[in-house]
Amino acid sequence: MEKYGSLYPEHINDVLRILDITPNLWGYRGQKNLRNETISSRIHAQIEWIKQLAGTQFIKNVKRKKILVYLEPNPGDQYFFTGNKLKCPYAPEFEDKCDLVLENMGWRHLLKNHPSKSHYRKLGIDAVIGIRNGYWGQDTEFWNSEPTFPPNVQQIFYVFESPCHTASAQLGINNALLASYWRGADIPIPYRHFTKDATYHYNNNGESIEDINHEDVRKLAVALISNCVSVKNDRMGYIQQLRKYIPVDVFGQCRSTHQNTCPPGRDCLEYLGSQYKFYLAFENCNCEDYITEKLFVNGLQYKMVPVVMGAAPENYKSVAPPHSFIHVNDFASPQQLANYLKLLDKNETLFAKYGEWRQSQTRWHLTTALGADFFCRACALFYYGDFRPPPSYPSSSTRWADLNKCLPKNIWRWPD
């Protein structure tokens, strides 16, 4: 707190009073047992910190922080839903408390061509944010050492790929903060978020989820998969076993026949939603909290009942509406799952229970708001860290794979 010595003591005391009623905001580093926490509860605590901090004389008088943001050349690697802007819709007055300095430099180039410490000093940088998404076969590129920074320059890793692709991202070297889908991240960011809680109705990105009606649907189950090889959980092998007992159509690059293509000019997922009851929302890797658009968008938004493989059942229950999905973990074998899907197909009353959440009095909304405010929450944590510094990782060699638990290769079932 020495850097704030020029401020009035009462301004500092205002912040200390807020900290007294603020729960720990750090992730795994500050509280190792996060199983009773949800992503939403952790984000809500960070939002409350921002709202309280924004009203203080401290934040109104303090020098704003300067954040260097590295942008990736690959369009698929981006700070999702942010538009590379700092947005605080719940506290607009906080939006000018950090300046974003955007620089085009991918992590692969950065790890091989480290800028000098003087580079960051000249820019007057307080923090550095960079994406660390590796893809299949690229993990060895993370073995190149991370750059080191001047004292008091904080680093953030923005990671949306699982450790199956990004295992060796080196968080420990600079004690980097972690922004990711995992609830143990310092800045948790879900791929999407369902809400009917007025707390989060500040955004304009919500989409109402319509009722489900499958009276005219004849086909049973479908998957849309284009990554046939770079997977850890053998999802295609599971589908092959499932197809011994029920018909399953596969679209995408892994399609089962050349006939499995969507009509030209029509939204493919909309088409699948009009033709099938069940959508196999199988991730490419089974890791804690790794739940992507396959659940949120491909299945639920397009009015199919998702059959999920990926994160553990309790992870799905914490982010999805009640009784809105079927988890493969609830069945000892693909045959048992097939028998259950056949039962639901024949019994409209049982099948309809998976759509009851859509008919609740308060409509559910699918939102991207908890990703769009990433830079706002990052900025706020830099101020939080000035008063409550982030604890260190277990060692300087701590990697992404050491934090986010994943099942071994070709294992699809989580232990009970």
UniProtKB/TrEMBL annotation:
<comment type="similarity">
    <text>Belongs to the glycosyltransferase 10 family.</text>
</comment>
<dbReference type="InterPro" id="IPR055270">
    <property type="entry name" value="Glyco_tran_10_C"/>
</dbReference>
<keyword id="KW-0812">Transmembrane</keyword>
<dbReference type="GO" id="GO:0046920">
    <property type="term" value="F:alpha-(1-&gt;3)-fucosyltransferase activity"/>
</dbReference>
<feature type="domain" description="Fucosyltransferase C-terminal">
    <location>
        <begin position="218"/>
        <end position="380"/>
    </location>
</feature>
<protein>
    <recommendedName>
        <fullName>Fucosyltransferase</fullName>
        <ecNumber>2.4.1.-</ecNumber>
    </recommendedName>
</protein>
<keyword id="KW-0472">Membrane</keyword>
<dbReference type="InterPro" id="IPR001503">
    <property type="entry name" value="Glyco_trans_10"/>
</dbReference>
<comment type="pathway">
    <text>Protein modification; protein glycosylation.</text>
</comment>
<dbReference type="InterPro" id="IPR038577">
    <property type="entry name" value="GT10-like_C_sf"/>
</dbReference>
<dbReference type="GO" id="GO:0032580">
    <property type="term" value="C:Golgi cisterna membrane"/>
</dbReference>
<keyword id="KW-0333">Golgi apparatus</keyword>
<dbReference type="Pfam" id="PF00852">
    <property type="entry name" value="Glyco_transf_10"/>
</dbReference>
<keyword id="KW-0808">Transferase</keyword>
<keyword id="KW-0328">Glycosyltransferase</keyword>
